[in-house]
UniProtKB/TrEMBL annotation:
Protein known as: DnaA/Hda family protein
InterPro entries noted in UniProt: Hda_lid, P-loop_NTPase
Span of domain Hda lid: 132-193
SUPFAM superfamilies linked: P-loop containing nucleoside triphosphate hydrolases
């Protein structure tokens, strides 16, 4: 599959929901875009917490008129079984969202297990470098943080490649910006994030440290 331009919103509506597309999640987006080609009426969307999977589910509903069951493993298996059958009968797509697909998601009901095995799978991977930077820039801009562009670059080079870690870092910077009422700088961010255990002091060398 060809590389996608970075970043993209999929799709533009609804306005309050943006899902940034990079190679780490492009295959999942492409599969949801091609829902009419699914071999059955249900698909699984799996990915780590805070990965935007619920946002992608809402966008899927807005685009297709389908149904989404978020945190599907928490639902009764009989209910999922009937929902799978209903999607097939009514030709209205169903998207089940979970942390992981079976067998990592243990399913006891044999008939449901068989149906899930036949369902296409869309996987959101951990952020790649492009998405990590795009997410940091997006969260910083959305919160109106007084952060220079070079700080975003600095953070992107040092942030753990997980959606949750990126949000924790922006949360911490947001708090210190509000508490101290000062513009964020690389030295201030470095001190704060090391103290909070969000970055490793031994992994932050570079000419920007004293900027």
């Amino acid at each position: 599959m060809s590389q996608l331009a970075l970043p993209l919103a999929w799709p533009a509506e609804p306005r309050d929901a943006v899902f940034l597309v990079t190679p780490s999640n492009a295959a999942a987006v492409r599969m949801l875009e091609e829902w009419r080609e699914w071999p059955v009426g249900t698909a699984l969307l799996v990915g780590p917490p805070r990965s935007g999977r619920s946002t992608l589910g809402r966008l899927f509903v807005a685009r297709t008129g389908g149904v989404v069951i978020d945190d599907a493993p928490a639902e009764p298996e009989e209910s999922l079984f009937h929902a799978w059958n209903a999607a097939q009968d009514r030709q209205r797509p169903l998207l089940l969202i979970a942390d992981a697909a079976p067998p990592a998601w243990p399913v006891a009901l044999p008939d449901l297990r068989t149906r899930l095995a036949a369902s296409p799978l869309a996987t959101i991977a951990p952020p790649d470098d492009s998405l990590a930077r795009a997410l940091l820039a997006h969260h910083v801009e959305r919160r109106g943080l007084p952060a220079p562009a070079e700080l975003v670059d600095w953070l992107a080079a040092r942030t753990e490649r997980s959606h949750a870690a990126i949000e924790r870092i922006v949360d911490a910077l947001d708090r210190v910006s509000l508490e101290r009422r000062r513009r964020l700088t690389i030295p201030l961010a470095r001190s704060l994030l090391i103290e909070a255990g969000l970055i490793d002091a031994g992994a932050t060398p570079g000419f920007l440290e004293d900027a």
